[in-house]
């Protein structure tokens, strides 16, 4: 049970950092976009909602980034069974998008 | 959508997420009923907004659990193959299911959640007696640091196949209704995998964002994630989750659990009424 304790801690702090930064960035973008849409309701171009959309897009991308990060870590650790699971998860997420496009 | 509505959406999400967070629940289960019953928002847009807030909550609350080494990252990726497969089925079903059925299924899930809120949850690790070895190539057994005892507690992951099957259905319901579906993950974690509660909460929270991403992509390209609704709801949920975590209540607080169960019950009635097209609901059915 005590085998290789330093490695998991490194994975976990790396994942924590990525998720933290991503959440902050996406939240700030959404917040800024909402504030912008309060002010430019009368403007011809709609910057506000577009910035909100970028923030939402980042939130949707964040878990995908997290899986890609885990995949690279598992490959480096040579724990290929978990790397394979990560690849499967990524393919499934992509298939979800494909289904969304094909069957509206 | 004017700024007043967006402010209402934001405030509602802060409230729902903070209250949910106090009991360690995801806010998604409150958001869709409130948006549809009180906000008269189309249920598919409500689900789209909710799925984004589910991702946001999961991502924003994962870090402390990871740093405390409570999350079993390897188990998470293995179970995520099942939850995302379920989400994929959910996405396929969601396109085919009529809106009234979505209300009906949501009502049933609300009732199940109310029941679960009232039932006492035992820590399976304390009653675990089986010493069967872990399954095949998956070295999933691990340990977590227990602060109260001041040492690492080793635990075993049991009955992976049954756990995976339950996780598949959790993913399906999550994608169909835009919720984290904790109501289905708790039995999977407790009854099948028999994880210590702390590990199970941390790991299931960690998995939610990836499960939700599998369906959020589809909702995004189908145009059900509407920025003026999903934006304030996601931001409000993150703020609420941070507030809720500060005031985390103990699970044994019976009066509050009763209040929550009652609220879930009332929302379930609202969803059933909407499903049968009577009374409260006036959106597109």
Notes on the protein architecture:
The complex is a heterodimer of chains A (104) and B (285). In chain A, 85% of the residues lie in helices and 0% in strands. By secondary structure, chain A is an all-alpha fold. By secondary structure, chain B is mainly α. In chain B, 71% of the residues lie in helices and 4% in strands. Chain B is built from eleven helices and two strands, in the order ααααααββααααα. In chain B, strand 1 (142-146) and strand 2 form a beta hairpin. In chain B, helix 4 runs parallel beside helix 9 (197-222) and helix 7 crosses helix 9. Chain B starts with a helix and ends in a 10-residue tail after the last helix. Mean pLDDT of chain B is 83; it is low at 279-285. Classes of the chains: A mainly alpha (104), B mainly alpha (285). Chains A and B meet through helix 1, helix 2 and helix 3 of A and helix 1, helix 3, helix 4, helix 9 and helix 10 of B.
For the record, give the distance between the C-alpha atoms at the N and C termini of chain B, rounded to a whole number.
20 Å
Main beta-sheet strand count, sense and barrel state of chain B: 2 strands, antiparallel
- Portion in beta strands of chain A: under 5%
Tally of helical segments of chain A = 3
Report the count of strand segments of chain B.
2
Physical arrangement of strands within the biggest beta sheet of chain B: 1-2
Q: Would you tell me the overall average pLDDT of chain B?
A: 83
List SSEs of chain A in N-to-C order.
HHH
């Amino acid at each position: 049970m005590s085998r290789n304790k330093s490695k998991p801690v490194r994975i976990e702090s790396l994942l924590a950092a990525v998720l933290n930064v991503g959440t902050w960035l996406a939240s700030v973008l959404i917040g800024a976009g909402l504030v912008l849409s309060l002010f430019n309701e009368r403007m011809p171009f709609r910057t506000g909602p577009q910035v909100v959309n970028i923030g939402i897009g980042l939130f949707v991308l964040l878990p995908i980034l997290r899986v890609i990060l885990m995949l690279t870590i598992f490959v480096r650790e040579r724990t290929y069974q978990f790397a394979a699971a990560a690849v499967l998860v990524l393919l499934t997420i992509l298939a979800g998008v494909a289904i969304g496009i094909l069957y509206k | 959508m004017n700024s007043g509505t967006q402010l209402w959406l934001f405030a509602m999400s802060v409230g729902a997420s903070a209250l949910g967070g106090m009991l360690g629940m995801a806010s998604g289960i409150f958001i869709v009923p409130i948006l549809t019953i009180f906000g008269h928002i189309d249920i598919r847009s409500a689900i789209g907004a909710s799925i984004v807030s589910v991702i946001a909550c999961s991502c924003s609350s994962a870090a402390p659990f990871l740093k405390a080494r409570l999350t079993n990252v390897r188990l998470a990726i293995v179970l995520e193959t099942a939850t995302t497969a379920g989400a994929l089925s959910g996405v396929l079903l969601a396109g085919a299911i009529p809106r009234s059925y979505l209300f009906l299924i949501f009502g049933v899930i609300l009732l199940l959640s109310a029941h679960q809120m009232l039932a006492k949850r035992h820590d399976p690790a304390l009653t675990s007696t089986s010493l069967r070895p872990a399954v095949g190539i998956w070295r999933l057994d691990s340990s977590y640091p227990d602060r109260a005892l001041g040492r690492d507690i080793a635990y075993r992951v049991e009955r992976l196949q049954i756990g995976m099957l339950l996780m598949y259905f959790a993913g399906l319901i999550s994608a169909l209704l835009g919720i984290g579906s904790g109501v289905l993950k708790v039995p999977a974690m407790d009854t099948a995998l028999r994880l210590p509660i702390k590990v199970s909460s941390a790991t299931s929270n960690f998995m939610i964002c990836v499960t939700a991403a599998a369906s959020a992509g589809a909702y995004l390209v189908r145009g059900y994630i509407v920025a003026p609704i999903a934006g304030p709801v996601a931001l409000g949920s993150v703020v609420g989750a941070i507030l809720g975590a500060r005031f985390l209540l103990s699970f044994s607080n019976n009066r509050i659990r009763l209040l929550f169960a009652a609220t879930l019950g009332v929302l379930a009635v609202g969803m059933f009424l909407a499903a049968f097209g009577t009374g409260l609901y006036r959106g597109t059915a």
